[in-house]
What does this fold into?
Amino acid sequence: MPRGEYAKKRLWRWRDNPLRRRDDVIEAWIVLAVWTVFTVGGTFAGLMTARTTDDAFARQQAERRAVTAVVLHDVPSAATVPRGTSGRLMTTVRWKAPDGSPRTGRTLVNTGTTAGSAVTVWQNDRGRLTFAPPTPATAAVESGLAGAAAVTAVAGLAFGAGTVARRRLDRRRVDAWGREWVLVEPRWGHRTG
It folds into this structure.
C-alpha cells in the first residue's frame, strides 16, 4: 500500500466522508486528547517528579553530616546472635551535635563491636541521628525511577479514561444500530429462526 493511501486511511475520521458519523468524530477527538495528555502531561509529570525527587535528595545530602560516635556498650558477636539477623545490632552511641553539645542515641552497628569503639553515624542539621543520604548515583537512579513511575501513572490514567470514553461510544453505536435494525428489519419480510 503506497504511503499516501495509508495516511488517508488512518485519518478518515478527520475528513469529510459520507460514512462518517458524529461518534466517529468524537472518537477521533478522544484519541487525540489521550495521546496529547500522554505525551505532554506524561513528559511534564515525569520531569517534574524526577526534579522534585532529585531536589529532595540534594537537600538530604546538604543537611546530613557524617560524624564519629563512640559505642557505649559491647555488641554481641555474630556467634551469639540468633540466626536470621543481618550482622548488625542496635546499640547506644554518643556523638557531638553541630552546636558541640554531646548527644546519645541508638543506631545499628556491626556485631562484635566493643564499647569505646568509634563508628560513623549520620546526623541532620539539628543533631539527630538519621540515615545516610543516598549517593549521587543512587539518587540519580531513584529520581529516574520516580519520573518513570509518574509517566506510567499519567499514561494509565489517560489511556484508562480514553478506553472508558470509547466503550461508552461503542455502547451508543450498538444501541443506535439496534434502534435502526428494529425499523429496517420488518421491511425484509419474515423473521428467521
Summary: The chain has three helices and five strands. Strands lie at 65-71, 88-96, 102-110, 118-123, 129-130.
